């Protein structure tokens, strides 16, 4: 087999650079832990205005408020994908370097525990009230233990709350119009299974390719939230939004386990308390701006919204798929506990 020597050299140099960065961060962290200043590095793919960034700032403020120890705290927040994407943040936390805390999709922990993917199942919640009660219930303790043991990453709290709707070039108002809807889904197997079960025709496409795929007719649409429709300008190619609430997102606040154990006990306590409160702040903020943002998109003439008339039918069709998937990943008890919440 012939190898491209230039490409091979570039790959090796890139890997070496990543290794040196990690080693450098580990050494710097070790020095900082012995000094009078404890520096904690957060990471986010968004700018100052996003709810995740605001929550990470809130987290930092609350930790400083609750920690009464002798050392000075310094929080450094790397925004706008300065340290990569969410999957990079989680990988850094797993190896104990570079990133100390970040908000990320639970799917990034699925390499270590499939249990965590229960959070990404479509139609998991009946409505926002059901979602909020679940977030306050402690139902995900088993998931937290699995991620901590296998990835050495802590889950401090849960944000999210945005509703994801059907977005397309044509209205999808009922089961008949949903039938055969050729839509993009994320790479998780449960996504394809679920949307096939409710009558759509799902295809896995990366988020970055959705705009072009709709524009060129490769797909008819996708599912996502108002903030994503605005951020990625999907409304330019798909301006019909069906308010089906196919999912309500969960976004954990993760913390580097190896770094956490090196911190003073009173600071650990402050971090756990602050994490829970900061993510309660995040989900309340995210929910508060979700519907108004969709309304704003309508008023600006960017989208037209439609009520999905048969959402109860969607939930009915989704139920056996959810149960089969939860059984497969060992999360049936979690699903049943969620379903039991009134």
* Approximate helicity band: 40-55%
How big a fraction of the residues is strand?
15-25%
The chain-level structural class is alpha/beta
Number of helices: 13
The counted number of beta strands is 9
Low-pLDDT regions: 10-19
* The CATH C-level class name: Alpha Beta
CATH superfamily: Bacterial extracellular solute-binding protein, family 7
Second rung of CATH, namely the architecture: 3-Layer(aba) Sandwich
What name does CATH use for the topology?
Answer: D-Maltodextrin-Binding Protein, domain 2
Rg of Cα set = 21 Å
The largest sheet, given as strand count, sense and whether it forms a barrel, is: 7 strands, mixed
- Rounded mean pLDDT score: 92
Shape estimate: globular
**Overall number of structural domains:** 1
Order of helices and strands: HEHEHEHHEHEHEHEHEHHEHH
Oligomer: single chain
Plain-language structure description:
By secondary structure, the chain is an alpha/beta fold. It has one domain (36-340): 3-Layer(aba) Sandwich (D-Maltodextrin-Binding Protein, domain 2), CATH 3.40.190. 49% of the residues lie in helices and 19% in strands. The protein has helices at 5-34, 51-66, 86-95, 128-135, 141-151, 175-178, 189-197, 210-215, 226-231, 257-262, 265-299, 311-329, 332-340; strands spanning 37-43, 72-78, 101-103, 153-168, 182-185, 201-204, 221-224, 240-256, 304-307. The strands form 2 sheets. Strands 1, 2, 3, 4, 7, 8 and 9 form a 7-stranded mixed sheet that branches. Helix 2 runs antiparallel to helix 11 and helix 7 (189-197) runs antiparallel to helix 12 (311-329). The radius of gyration is 21 Å and the shape is globular. The N and C termini lie far apart (61 Å). Mean pLDDT is 92; it is low at 10-19.
